[in-house]
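Here is the promised in-class demo. Please do not try to memorize the tokens; focus on the logic of going from shape to residues.
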């Protein structure tokens, strides 16, 4: 069965990168089939994890070539770049392991990113459990599933006085 490639965004704060690396390694087969969009340092870690996993588990069956797009680091604008991709309807799901115990220098950007994911109804996981639920959902594999996005035409077309 030929599954449609999704664009999955993967992001992790510094203290959560190890957790995301373990999750990526555990889900490498599923993730390798999709185009991954990652903020800077997270993307380098994800790419290394997937390449190491691929080398360790060489099998006879052909594996897809990894497709990973690296954005800027979150504090340097990567969160905003990702937000733009969400607003353009290009992101299928967001996996964001954020650190609830540490203030971030770019907290306003993080809040804006999560706001856009909510606004555009992008399936979003913020920890391992929700990431596991998201990636194992039958809807994740359903090429015909389209999240319903609220119609904001009235807001956009409103007359300002």
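The designed amino acids, position by position:
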């Amino acid at each position: 069965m030929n599954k449609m490639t999704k664009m999955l965004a993967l992001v992790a704060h510094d203290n959560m990168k190890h957790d995301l690396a373990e999750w990526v390694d555990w889900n490498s087969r599923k993730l390798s089939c999709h185009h991954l969009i990652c903020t800077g340092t997270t993307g380098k870690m994800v790419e290394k994890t997937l390449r190491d996993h691929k080398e360790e588990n060489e099998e006879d069956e052909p594996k897809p070539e990894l497709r990973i797009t690296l954005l800027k680091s979150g504090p340097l604008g990567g969160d905003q770049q990702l937000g733009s991709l969400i607003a353009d309807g290009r992101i299928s799901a967001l996996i964001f392991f954020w650190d609830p115990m540490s203030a971030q220098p770019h907290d306003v950007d993080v809040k804006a990113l999560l706001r856009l994911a909510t606004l555009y109804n992008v399936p979003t996981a913020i920890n391992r459990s929700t990431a596991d639920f998201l990636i194992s959902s039958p809807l994740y594999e359903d090429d015909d599933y389209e999240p319903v996005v609220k119609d904001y035409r009235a807001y956009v077309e409103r007359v300002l006085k």
